[in-house]
Fold these 3 entries.
Entry 1:
Amino acid sequence: MQKTFAAPARLSVDHYENFPVASWLCPAHLRAPIVAIYRFARTADDLADEGVATAEQRLADLAQYRNDLMLAAKGKSTSPRWQPIFANLQWAMQEFALPLNLLEDLLDAFVQDVVKTRDYIGYANRSELLDYCRRSANPIGRLLLHLYGLQDRQALASSDAICTALQLINFWQDLSRDIPNGRFYLPAEDCAIHQLDHQDLLNLRSSPAACRLIESMVVWSRGLMNQGLPLVHQIPGRAGWELRLVVQGGLRILEKIERQDFDSLSMRPVITLADMPVMVWRALRMRNRWAHQAQPL
């Protein structure tokens, strides 16, 4: 007999995020699976880089976490350690047929985080960093599209562009936190163009060259976000409005980095309640501009 699971009664999001996660804008019937996915990914991310565990312990924890994922996918009981996480995810996997390969991709990225941090290995170029984002960020967007019932090629490409842009924006936002902890996402090739290396950036002191480097990262990220903008008009209803706010949250961080003269080595910009009216207004303008362009001649 196939095992059945009840929908989770209450789930919460307990980390700072630049954008809403399963907010009231999200369709009510999708909030539980979306937060189940979020908490699965958030917990694995914390295993990879939060606390004082050794790299070896982190890798062992992630291996156990992956084993629980495989058990959940088979409808079996998981270990007690993360039982609430996997109970909710198991329900979502059964109820919505979530693609297992996308969840595995996320774990691959978190393992890579540990290895890169342990050996203090950065990314050689933008292509390497994009490959990381393909596994660390893009699966989230594709899982959401799966829930929304959108699987056409244009939607997937736009989702990947937005998710990669959001991941990169988070990197440039968190330079002052990541670099001291061995997480170095500025591509070595771009650092060399600006005559910088890891050692130049370890002290987190801003310089004209460092600001030009970060400016180039901001331009790159904004270009990727713009590539994905058609998706906000493809997703209908409240989910589409939530995506508009997600996009505006990312763009707002880029704007704040620009306003501080691209010095995010010593100053970390964040989204506050004061930013919400601007983001909402810009989200509305995205809709109005599209509606105007869509009117027949």
Note: The domain at 122-292 is CATH 1.10.600.10 (Farnesyl Diphosphate Synthase).
Entry 2:
Amino acid sequence: MRAENVNLNQKKILIVVARFNDMITRSLLVGATDCLRDSGVHDADVQVVWVPGSFEIPVVAAKAARSGKYAAVICLGAVIRGETPHFDFVAGQAASGCMSVALETGLPVIFGVLTTDTIEQALARSGIKGGNKGRDAAQAALEMIKTLDAVAGAQAGVSK
């Protein structure tokens, strides 16, 4: 499914962005907002909130998903492996937390958190030196909105 086919009328999207590694996360945010704008989402329908790091993303995603105000939550961050096991704790918990929120609420919670071994890999994935995974995350959010709308419509037709 292509995002161009998504009915974006009255659809609000929240983007949660980690401030840690902000040179990378700001570029991911630009990619995500450009994709949404290119797909017909109005700037007024996109809210951006910043959190300290990727570990804090799931709690904001959960609050947003439970609010009923959003059609999707896009989570953007960058966790780069260092010399300590900190990477394993942050990356794994951020991913697990986002997935738990999506499964609990049925809302698309898109994991656009880069998990790389080096800064060069993060730069290559954030649009600074190559493709932009923020754009990819926004595309996934739009496709999931359409898919869930289609499933809800199919369920409504079955219950008649």
Note: Residues 58 and 97 are 5 Å apart (CA to CA).
Entry 3:
Amino acid sequence: MKISDKGINLLKQLEGCVKIGDKHIIYDDQTGKPVKPKEALPRGATIGYGHLIKAGEDFRSGISESQATELLRADIAVAECAVQNGIASALTQNQYDALVMFAYNIGIKNFTDSTVVKYVNNRNFQNRRYPTLESAWMAWNKSCGREMPGLTKRRKVEYELFTNRSVWGN
């Protein structure tokens, strides 16, 4: 399976971006604030739709929409591999899209080790801390130990998509 075009567009909405004019610019992932051109890059420096800037990447001049989408697709490919390798159950397109978005956001190791994966792979799985798939999914709403309203909203959207509730507006 591959993430659908609808899934990519929803992921773009969930990730957000920072632009000046038609150029995507570098921003601090934690705060969403743009990084000034001559300022040192903070830990978590990001560009486009959630692309964490790696050593050796230089985006100081900004990037176009097509470059941002290209980076997103490359990053999504890694999340897709995690879903394909980690999930043994048959999935609908919505479930696949939701799991790819989830893996993309929480990171591959976190996804692979998550209670969410255990629930999806085994309908009889039980966990005292997270008694349902929904509670396991919604637990990923923190950053630096603090609940983040944006992550809570994101988890709800992903979970609604996974459970086939309408997030497409149709």
Note: Residues 65-86 form the longest helix (22 residues).
